[in-house]
Specification:
- The chain has 15 helices and 16 strands.
- By secondary structure, it is of the alpha/beta class.
- The strands form 3 sheets. The protein has a 7-stranded mixed sheet.
- Helix 2 packs across helix 15.
- The longest helix is centred in the last third of the chain and has 26 residues.
- The chain is globular and about 75 Å long.
- The chain starts with a helix and ends with a helix.
Length: 483
């Protein structure tokens, strides 16, 4: 047994919660669990290779064009203080030197790393006093050991835990067809634009193919513009849907989708369209209706039968994503400028063929619902197709091991990992495992709306409450059955 295992064993009366992943979901879970009134207080250990907690994939970016995509006033780690992030920004002058952060309508859209810094700052007092331990390491193996879990990090050190929370992010995007293999050695092939410096090899005049049209695509185009890129850009996706911007004026959520709930995808779409029609008749826009769907999203989702959830994912998800995941005004302005200047074309279609000659990438693009094809040549290719949901279980060794041993399986909607409404992992052999919890976007298949604030914060608080309940049961059981 390692020294770390002995240290943990010596504190057997103090239960241990291990959180794998220290992005916003994992950090927020640790934050709310640290605030829970429990006796004895648990050891909370967060495994996160990054230097800080709370940044994760989304907010660990130095790109100045990357901004939060909702107003800062709607983002907070505290459920009862929705303006806490804005107050923190003011107190720390966190947008000093960023004149473009404050919009003419008074909304604040700071750079994305500002929110990551905020979450990290909120955790640091707990790290400093030992309530939360930050293990700056990735988990290589997660093994069942009697009634507990043994976590082995990438350095080979072992940690025993009573409760494990999986709060890792989705795997990176996947290039369609054989592009990944064909272009893997190309100097300007960017399979994962979220990596630091990923766009550095793209030259100002390069012709760029962006595969995908969501938020990441918008970020890439805005980042290239800020770097002085002047070359032509093609953004292609199956439907050619561009992420929408924010409402032209403040609006409250509109409509009610729970008073007379829908039990089919078709009925839900009809209800949303009717609500938008009613909103526009009073001078409002669709934004408030989508905000209400988002606010009621988890309840709406859980009322739908599995077959209807699958139908939504298969047919409607792209339309939902472009309306729900709105681009920041600064990013929207960059896209509008690129289109008006003739530098950006957005196409609905697919890549029918590709060949590489020297460093030129020749593509045949097949347009949607058409026999027409276009011949284009590019100097760089960037993949922004969104998370590779199907590769979740293979994305990290410990996930693959848990799947192989029957503790994990993909959610039938294809959005994440299978879990109960109490966030307990569900596997084909183990069934429900109460001590293995799924937090954040990986639980999206069960909960529906889990990809943005405040839903992430609310879900993290819920996961923390479930973990606290499990810990209390563990303590009581130990007291009743002493060794």
């Amino acid at each position: 047994m390692s020294a770390r295992s002995e240290s943990t064993a010596s504190k057997a009366k103090r239960p241990v919660v291990a959180i794998i992943g220290g992005g916003v979901s994992g950090a927020a879970t640790a934050f709310h669990l640290a605030q829970a009134d429990q006796s004895p207080a648990p050891e909370i250990i967060v495994f996160e290779p990054r230097d800080g907690l709370g940044r994760g994939l989304a907010y660990d970016t130095a790109e100045p064009a990357h901004r939060i995509n909702v107003p800062a006033a709607r983002m907070s780690l505290l459920l009862d203080e929705p303006d806490h992030f804005v107050c923190w920004i003011d107190a720390h002058s966190a947008t000093s030197g960023d004149a473009d952060a404050l919009r003419p309508d008074g909304n604040l859209f700071p750079r994305r790393n500002v929110f990551g810094n905020y979450v990290n700052a909120m955790l640091q007092p707990f790290v400093a006093d030992g309530t939360v331990q930050h293990r700056c390491s990735a988990v290589a193996h997660l093994l069942r050991d009697g009634q507990r879990w043994c976590l082995v990090d990438e350095d080979g050190a072992e940690t025993m835990a009573d409760i494990v929370v999986i709060a890792t992010s989705h795997p990176p995007p996947l290039a369609p067809g054989g592009l990944q293999t064909l272009l893997k050695n190309h100097p300007r092939f960017v399979p994962d634009p979220t990596r630091a410096g990923a766009l550095g090899a793209i030259r100002p005049s390069d012709r760029v193919l962006v595969i995908g049209n969501g938020l990441t695509s918008a970020d890439v185009i805005a980042s290239l513009a800020l770097k002085g890129h002047t070359g032509a850009i093609t953004a292609i996706s199956r439907r050619g849907l561009r992420s929408r911007g924010h409402a032209p004026f403040p609006q409250d959520p509109a409509g009610d989708f729970l008073a007379d709930p829908a039990f089919t995808a078709r009925t839900l779409v009809r209800n949303i369209r009717n609500a938008i029609f009613e909103a526009t008749a009073t001078g409002l826009t669709w934004h408030g209706v989508i905000d209400q769907v988002r606010a009621q999203g988890q309840s709406i989702w859980q009322l739908l039968p599995l077959a209807e959830r699958q139908r939504i994912v298969r047919h409607l998800r792209p339309y939902w994503d472009v309306h729900r995941f709105r681009v920041a005004p600064q990013v929207e302005a960059a896209l509008d400028a690129a289109i008006s200047q003739g530098r950006l074309e957005i196409l609905a279609g697919s890549i029918a063929g590709t060949n590489v000659e020297d460093e030129a990438v020749h593509c045949t693009l097949r347009l949607r619902r058409s026999q027409e094809t276009l011949q284009r040549t590019y100097d760089a290719v960037v993949v922004t197709t969104g998370p590779g949901h199907g590769g979740i279980l293979a994305s990290q060794p410990f996930l693959a091991e848990l799947a192989q041993s029957g503790y994990l399986e993909l959610d039938p909607t294809g959005l994440g990992l299978s879990c109960t409404r109490n966030c307990e992992a569900v596997g084909p052999v183990a069934g429900v495992t109460p001590s293995l919890l799924i937090a954040g976007p990986l639980a999206r298949g069960t909960f529906g709306e889990l990809m943005g604030l405040p839903q992430v914060t609310e879900h993290a608080a819920f996961v923390a409450s479930v973990a606290a309940g499990r810990l209390q049961a563990t303590v009581l059981s130990a007291a009743q059955n002493p060794l």
